[in-house]
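Morning F.,

Quick status update on the modeling queue. The single chain you submitted on Monday has been processed. Sequence for confirmation:
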Amino acid sequence: MGGLLISQGSISWRDLAPLLDGPARISLSPEAKKAIGDSHKVLKNILSSGQQIYGVNTGFGQLSTVSISPDDQKLLQLNLVRSHACGVGIPLDLGVTRITMVLKLMTWAKGHSGIRPQLAKLLVGMINHDILPVIPRQGSVGASGDLAPLAHMARAMIGEGDVHFQDRIMPAMLALKEANLEPTVLEAKEGLSLINGTQVSTALGIRALAESQKLLETADISGALSTEASLSTRVVFTPKIHKLKKHAGQVASATNVYKMLAGSEIVQSHDDCGRIQDPYCVRCIPHVHGSSREVFINGEMIINNELNSISDNPLVFPNGDVMNSGHFHAEPVAQALDTLSIAMAEIGAISERRVNYFMKGIGDRIPMFGAVNPGLESGFMLAQVTAAALASENKTLAHPASVDSISTSAGQEDFVSMAPWAGRKCLRILKNVSTIIAIELLVAGNVNHRFHKKLSSGKGLIPVMNLLKYHRVLTTEDHPITADIQSINDLIQSKKIIINVKKRMKLL
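Structure tokens below.
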């Protein structure tokens, strides 16, 4: 990735997505720097007047009625960060951590946080040196900010805790020293501003969007391959049929499958087979895939709105007002990720059903389980079982996190979003869906290879078959297939399947 300028303007999650895979050079625009500096000056003037400001010269939560003397205000912020750094579990992945840090800068750049320009400069320096705090992934309920994980990020900025730097884990103080960066001493409001916010939840949302987009595109490809291999008709995907329903996602998915099947000798070989209708898992690909596409688009809108929002508290206004709200509450993100989880679980569920369709055999051309010698061989019997196991896991994982709440902070935070859990379980669903689609590609590709070998695939599917052949996952006899599933999963994750199909045709 090249450079990324953080300004007061809005950007898309797609602009941040490259950070999931590697570092980038970050800079603050002149207007962002000015906004940060001006906000800090306003806060200093307010504090000098003796006005009470929550979390700056008062305690936190139920302790907000306790006044803090000017001499103790730095210690208050330090204690806040240390006491809130209580996350557990394995660390967030580096891409999510990287985006979390950038999102924090984006909030500050709006000029309502009151932090010093030096603090923003340090965070820019850490990002540009790819010094990434080790942030345990569990411990946030997604309200009052992603407090625990963001506190671990803040600890690194004061030279405490561990970071990932130059392909190793090391103490934050050592990494900062190697990069010629000075750890900060937190001043008024800075600890609070660091840990308040929806940045972790939103970063998880960006990861989920990136993975979902990849799988939505691949699902149309795997669905088309199954349609072809199962000797199903192409006619039901004719775009003019689907334009009768007012769902753009449905039209896009139908058009994709229809185009990929163009010129398929396999499809043409059964034009007069007499079958009246194919099962829903094939015939209704556009309706299911299309619905999931539209939920994805809604999720994009919500995540984009959130990443361009201010989620700090309290908020410092240029006229000297300091006002409190609940902008750190990640309910929009939680609901977006919950609906995305449901939509993507459905992509995996219908893919598994297409795998299952092959298991009973199809007519006199495809034997049971796709085995060359059924009985002597089991073919892909257990591949379908694996796909079924993952699809069933997703049914449990798709239960919404956002409908749950648990009171925290002695009842002050009595309704929480659970957005981080919504994000983490969405990513677990997506991992399962990727594997299910890999199994579908394996089974459908092998059915083509074993039973339709003398016939060519559709225009958009020839590159898929070529990839499967190149990676030696097309076989004719029983063997352990875990490695084959992983090979295809790697092709999905690297987007090689999508890229190769798009070289042949434009997909929607």
